Amino acid sequence: MKIEWCKKKGLKLIDPNNNLSEEYYRNAEETLKVTNLIKDSGSNMWLATQKYYTEYLAAYSLLMKIGIKTEIHSCTIEIIKLLEEQKLLDVDYAKILEHDKDLQIDNQYYLKNRPVDFDSEKLTTILLKIRQILDTITEQKIDAIRQLIENY
Question: What is the rounded CA–CA span in Å between residue 79 and residue 76?
């Protein structure tokens, strides 16, 4: 999937929104807390779902900071790939998101009960990296990313 396809399906540049960015980030932190509470419950369905949404909400907080709206998870992942290409993220975050999205779909919708590799420290580290980006990204970097998307 490419960004051009996503633009046809509703990916839009909107005004960057720090308030929504912060709200999505807080929701990611809250979801991580819930994930930690259920990690020993034996439910691979809910663990996969909570883990993926922790990651997704953190990713979406970045999109809101930059001013990118998309309601298609695959398109959010495409934007994360772009952010990796732009050296904004130094984690293979798109690959993590893709894997955990597939795991969440398998366990929640197809009831496959696949095991979930959940490492709270690793996920916390990713959230902290995103927090750092949210706190340090410059207007120039935001403008450059928006320009790239506009030109697709």
Answer: 5
> Domains, the chain, ranges and CATH?
3-150 (1.20.120.330)
Cα→Cα distances 42→30, 47, 108, 114, Å: 20, 8, 14, 11
Percent of the chain topping pLDDT 90: 97
CA atoms of 92 and 103, how far apart (whole Å): 17
Phi, psi (deg, nearest 5) at residue 4: -60, -45
**Amino acid making up residue 102:** D
Question: CA 114, CA 116: separation in Å to the nearest integer?
Answer: 6
d(CA 146, CA 48): 32
Q: Half-sphere exposure of residue 131, counting CA atoms within 13 Å on the CB side? A: 11
Q: What is the pLDDT of residues 25-75, one digit of tens each?
A: 999 999 999 999 999 999 999 999 999 999 999 999 999 999 999 999 999
